[in-house]
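ok posting inputs for the heme C job
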Amino acid sequence: MTSKAMTWVAVIVTITALAVPNLFAIDTKSSAREGIPPRTVADYLRAVIMAHRHFYTTYIVNRLQQERIVDAVENWQTTHSLPLPVQLLQETSEIAELTGPNVRYHLISQWPINKANVPANEFERMALKELQVYPNRPYSSTIRSGEGQLFEAVYADLAVTTACVQCHNSHPSSPKSDFKVGDVMGGLVISFPLSDR
Ligand code: HEC
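and the output
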């Protein structure tokens, strides 16, 4: 190797030595920032869940009922009817849970038609209380569960149409009969495990 070539090799080695740790440093920083915050993930999931619920209610349940083709009723399995929108949520959540990442979602309320939909713990009770006062502020937290950490977010579930109010107010198992359009009827709970992977 000529001395000129050796000088070039020395320059390249020096530049690489200086650059590589910097590259690593940049990598380390970006991996620390990598990943979407759990609240944002919950917001994304909620958008999809609510879009499906809305579409199912408006373009399937309401349409087929208006055209007197088939009704949506609670005991849909035994009566060859359509599931209620809340049941669509329950059924799809069970399927989602089986597909791997253990995502769950369900509706809860202080005034449930189905007693199984009462808040399951202190966190959910607090969430429902807070959402009555601040419906636009989802209530979320990281919770310890058997296998590790679980992220849970609760969003206000609003009486968006008279159908919500009429059905709940007149249901024989409903403990409340004076819901009005716009009221917070309960909460949509979304939960998923937090993992470092
Ligand atoms: C045709 C009747 C009907 C309509 C319309 C209806 N619901 Fe319900 N809803 C039910 C029944 C029945 C349950 C209980 C289902 C179960 O868990 O078995 C329920 C459950 C719920 C729950 C969980 C707590 C509970 O009461 O058990 C919430 C929250 C809720 N509905 C909100 C709404 C909202 C908001 C709307 C309108 C967008 C709506 N519902 C429309 C019948 C109805």
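notes: The two ends are 48 Å apart (CA to CA). The chain has one domain: 36-194.
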